[in-house]
TrEMBL record:
<protein>
    <recommendedName>
        <fullName>Pyruvate dehydrogenase complex repressor</fullName>
    </recommendedName>
</protein>
<comment type="function">
    <text>Transcriptional repressor for the pyruvate dehydrogenase complex genes aceEF and lpd.</text>
</comment>
<dbReference type="Pfam" id="PF00392">
    <property type="entry name" value="GntR"/>
</dbReference>
<dbReference type="Pfam" id="PF07729">
    <property type="entry name" value="FCD"/>
</dbReference>
<keyword id="KW-0238">DNA-binding</keyword>
<dbReference type="InterPro" id="IPR008920">
    <property type="entry name" value="TF_FadR/GntR_C"/>
</dbReference>
<keyword id="KW-0805">Transcription regulation</keyword>
<dbReference type="InterPro" id="IPR000524">
    <property type="entry name" value="Tscrpt_reg_HTH_GntR"/>
</dbReference>
<dbReference type="GO" id="GO:0003700">
    <property type="term" value="F:DNA-binding transcription factor activity"/>
</dbReference>
<dbReference type="InterPro" id="IPR036390">
    <property type="entry name" value="WH_DNA-bd_sf"/>
</dbReference>
<dbReference type="InterPro" id="IPR011711">
    <property type="entry name" value="GntR_C"/>
</dbReference>
<keyword id="KW-0678">Repressor</keyword>
<dbReference type="InterPro" id="IPR036388">
    <property type="entry name" value="WH-like_DNA-bd_sf"/>
</dbReference>
<keyword id="KW-0804">Transcription</keyword>
<dbReference type="GO" id="GO:0003677">
    <property type="term" value="F:DNA binding"/>
</dbReference>
Length: 263
C-alpha cells in the first residue's frame, strides 16, 4: 500500500496561526497596531519574509489591514455586531435599554464567574488599573455632564476588563461587539439614576467594590452573584423611573381632558 507523503507545513502558516490565536484570545485588539515587523520577527524567532507572508495572508482574510507607510492593524470591524444606525435606533427606544440590561444580566454574571476562576496576575493588574480609574471618577464631586460621561465610559471599561479576565473567547468577543452600545447605555443609565435616587452613587461604588474583591480573591460564585445583583439594581431603578414617567403622562392626559370638558 502506498502512503501519501507528509508535507512539511510552511513557516508562514505557523506564524499566521499564532497571530490568529492572539486576535481570538484578545491579546491583539480591534484597531490595534501590530509591533514593527523587525521587532515582531525577533519576538517570534522567524525571518522577516516569513512574517511578511503571514501578514499578507491575514490581510487577505480581512483580519489585518495594511496602511501605506503606517504599519499593519487588526481590523476595527472585528466583532462589530452592531452598526452605528442600529445603535441610534436602540438608543431612541426605552424598551431596548431594558432588553440590553436583561442580556447583560446573563452575560456579565458569567464573565465575572470565569474571571474569578481564571484571572492571571496580568489580568489582576489590568483589572486593578480599571477599578482604580473608576474609583477616581467616583471621587469627582462636580457631577457635570462631562464627568458623568467619563464615569460611564470608565464603568464600561471596568466591565470589559472583567470579560478579558474570563478567558472565554466567545464571551470576550460578544462583549467587544457590544462595547459601544454598552458604553452609551451605561452613560444614559448613570445620568437618569443619579437624578432619581440620591444613594445611587454610593450603591454603585459598593457594588463594584464587592464585585472587584470577589474576582481578585478568586471567589467565582460570589462574583457571579455580585454581578447579577448589580445589574438587578440598575434594572430596578430604571423600571421604577419608567413606571413613574408612565403615571405622570397618564395624569397629564387626565388633566388635559378635564380642562377640555370645561370648555
Amino acid at each position: 500500500m502506498e502512503l501519501p507523503q507528509i508535507r512539511q507545513r510552511r513557516l508562514s502558516d505557523t506564524i499566521m496561526d499564532r497571530l490568529e490565536s492572539m486576535i481570538l484570545e484578545g491579546a491583539l485588539k480591534p484597531g490595534e497596531r501590530l509591533p514593527a515587523e523587525r521587532a515582531l520577527a525577533e519576538q517570534f524567532g522567524v525571518s522577516r519574509p516569513s512574517l511578511r507572508e503571514a501578514v499578507q495572508k491575514l490581510v487577505a482574510k480581512g483580519l489585518l489591514v495594511s496602511r501605506q507607510g503606517g504599519g499593519n492593524y487588526v481590523t476595527d470591524k472585528l466583532g462589530s455586531s452592531f452598526s452605528d444606525p442600529l445603535l441610534a435606533l436602540l438608543e431612541s427606544h426605552p424598551e431596548a435599554h431594558q432588553d440590553l440590561l436583561e442580556f447583560r444580566h446573563t452575560l456579565e454574571a458569567d464573565c465575572a464567574y470565569y474571571a474569578a476562576l481564571r484571572a492571571t496576575e496580568v489580568d489582576r493588574k489590568h483589572l486593578q488599573a480599571a477599578f482604580d480609574e473608576l474609583q477616581a471618577c467616583y471621587s469627582d464631586s462636580t457631577h457635570t455632564q462631562e464627568a458623568r460621561s467619563k464615569e460611564g465610559v470608565t464603568d464600561a471599561r471596568f466591565h470589559m476588563a472583567i470579560a478579558e479576565a474570563s478567558h472565554n473567547m466567545v464571551l470576550l468577543h460578544t462583549m467587544r461587539g457590544l462595547f459601544d452600545l454598552l458604553k452609551r447605555n451605561v452613560v444614559t443609565n448613570i445620568g437618569g439614576m443619579y437624578e432619581l435616587r440620591g444613594e445611587t452613587r454610593e450603591r454603585l461604588v459598593n457594588q463594584h467594590s464587592e464585585l472587584f474583591r470577589a474576582i481578585m480573591e478568586a471567589r467565582p460564585n460570589d462574583a457571579r452573584r455580585n454581578a447579577s445583583e448589580h445589574i438587578s439594581y440598575v434594572q430596578e431603578v430604571l423600571t421604577n423611573n419608567r413606571e413613574a414617567e408612565v403615571r405622570t403622562a397618564r395624569a397629564e392626559r387626565y388633566r388635559f381632558l378635564e380642562n377640555f370638558d370645561k370648555h
